[in-house]
Amino acid sequence: CLSWYRKTSRRLTRAITPSLPIVRPKPGEPVKPIKTKARSATILPNFIGLKFQVHNGKVYNDVTITEDMVGHKLGEFSPYATWIQLRWKAITVESRTRKIFTYKQSKNR
Prior knowledge:
Blueprint: E1 2-8, E2 11-17, E3 34-36, E4 51-55, E5 60-64, E6 84-93, E7 96-105
Parallel strand pairs: 3-4
Antiparallel strand pairs: 1-2, 4-5, 6-7
């Protein structure tokens, strides 16, 4: 685990980079996913082809690393919230049209 000290606003703070247990599989072996909660870990070029299970606060989401992901953080590919669509819906009650507010789960996950 790498650690270093940096000076921030007249005091020393300790920053720790999480170390991930990365083991390359032998040719012909299935790739076992690496379970991690380190959403802030930067994806390096030697991660390409590996599978991670990144925790989003509730469950572990599967993430397979490709070349386009290098330089980004693991947490960017494991969404932590479900988005809902807010809209007004017109209904007719007793020959009067009213608008009510409804929620709809969006297709984006």
